[in-house]
Write a structure and sequence with these properties.
Elements (H helix, E strand, L loop, with lengths): L6 H8 L3 H9 L6 H14 L17 E6 L31 H15 L3 E6 L5 H8 L4 E5 L6 H10 L2 E4 L9 E5 L1 H16 L3 E5 L5 H17 L2 E3 L10 H12 L7 E4 L2 H13 L9 E3 L5 H4 L7 E3 L2 H15 L8 E5 L2 E3 L14 H19 L4
Parallel strand pairs: 1-2, 1-3, 3-4, 4-5, 5-11, 6-7, 6-8, 8-9
Antiparallel strand pairs: 10-12
Helix pairs in contact: 1-2, 1-3, 2-3, 4-12, 7-8, 9-10
């Protein structure tokens, strides 16, 4: 286990005062850039994490836990371009792809902390901002990191030796941390089984970048399951899909006009699936008549899309709750060894795969059901209204 370095150790190694070390993390604008970098380099080498709110406390504890992620409050969907109205007021972005799965993780984390009367810190930090990260984790006794935001390997290893750490949406690793991941393989298998056995799909395109453990697992699982049915799977490049709506339209048009345009498009996540469906409609393509589209995550927006999105639901809120509960129960004590928890996924059948919309009850039936429910409540409570 790496011993805990102090502010004085960093000051000595960097050849500066302790006040300068403090400024490097809390008020970097007050010191020169080269001085700041000298301090940060020393801190990295010594695996130093400021003690934040615990400074001066005999226990060295803050009694708070933290969830750190990429920006959870992103301002727009993939290709939103801000526009101003006649009064010069910038219009609100289209929010049909919100909330994201990471928002559900955050919600679960908050709920668990609230129920346990636990102080928490929620922070979205850009990658590469080492000083911001180490200053923030110094304010908490336990750390949960969402996939998509990850410091360098040495920093994570040092952090795992000093505090309990939970890595969300991460496979088994050598870190002395608790890694929590959903069963991407089982979810993808169930999805492809449905497409092949129910809708007789023979060729599929996997849409999405392979830039995370989840996306790799989903793609590899799709390729592996496809062997069972001897069906074709392609992985077309997205190009600059997220740059703008014009670029998205151009990329989509090129994709649609391909001779090998697939029967089904399996998207790496729901956000991409909903955006792809929107662009297909703009190009005059019908879903699922012209192309089947599926997602992954089970975000709320997919339940209200038209057609309703067929997807694989991952228990994001449960993941957030488990992360918070695990950190609270550790009481600041590092894990000391790698831990792993795999959460189940569930296939959610919508209409974007070709399944028919269930018949909707008439208004008379709805009213009758409401009256019956109201009468039963009165009887149980003994009221005679």
């Amino acid at each position: 286990m790496v011993g805990k370095s102090t502010l004085y150790d960093v000051a000595l190694k960097a050849g500066v005062s302790t006040g300068t070390v403090s400024h490097a993390f809390h008020h970097p604008e007050l010191i020169k850039e080269d001085t700041k970098m000298k301090v940060l380099d020393a801190a990295r080498e010594l695996h130093y994490f400021p003690s934040g709110n615990a400074r001066g406390l005999a226990s060295g504890k803050t009694n708070a836990i933290g969830l750190f992620s990429f920006d959870m409050l992103i301002s727009s969907p993939l290709w939103y371009v801000p526009k101003s109205n006649s009064d010069g007021v910038v219009e609100e972005p289209e929010i049909s792809t919100f909330p994201l799965y990471v928002d559900e993780i955050e919600h679960g984390f908050e709920l668990e902390c609230k129920e346990r009367d636990q102080a928490l810190v929620l922070q979205a930090l850009p990658n590469g901002k080492y000083e911001s990260f180490v200053d923030s984790v110094g304010r908490v006794d336990g750390v949960a990191l969402v996939e998509g935001f990850k410091p360098d390997i040495a920093t994570i290893k040092a952090l795992c030796d000093q505090r309990p750490v939970v890595l969300l949406s991460e496979p088994k690793s050598s870190y002395n941390a608790l890694s929590i991941q959903v069963d991407n393989v089982a979810g993808t298998y169930a999805l492809l089984d449905h497409l092949v056995l129910t809708h007789h799909v023979r060729d599929v395109a996997f849409l999405g970048t392979l830039d995370s453990p989840d996306s790799y697992e989903r793609y590899n699982a799709l390729m592996e399951r496809a062997k069972r049915y001897d069906i074709s799977v392609t992985h077309p490049s997205l190009g600059k899909w997220g740059a703008s709506i014009d670029q998205a339209m151009a990329e989509a048009r090129t994709f649609v006009e391909r001779e090998d345009f697939p029967q089904a498009v399996v998207c790496v996540n729901d956000q991409l699936a909903l955006s792809f469906m929107a662009v297909m409609r703009m190009l005059g393509r019908r879903i699922p008549e012209d192309v089947i589209v599926t997602g992954y995550d089970g975000i709320l927006a997919g339940r209200f899309s038209s057609p309703k999105l067929t997807t694989v639901l991952q228990p994001s809120q449960a993941m957030g709750r488990l992360a918070a509960r695990s950190l609270i129960e550790r009481r600041g004590k590092p894990w000391g060894e790698p831990k792993f928890k795999l959460l189940p996924t569930k296939l959610v059948i919508g209409e974007s795969c070709g399944c028919r919309r269930p018949s909707r009850p008439s208004m008379d039936r709805l009213v009758a059901a409401d009256v019956s429910w109201f009468d039963s409540i009165k009887m149980r409570r003994g009221h005679n209204w």
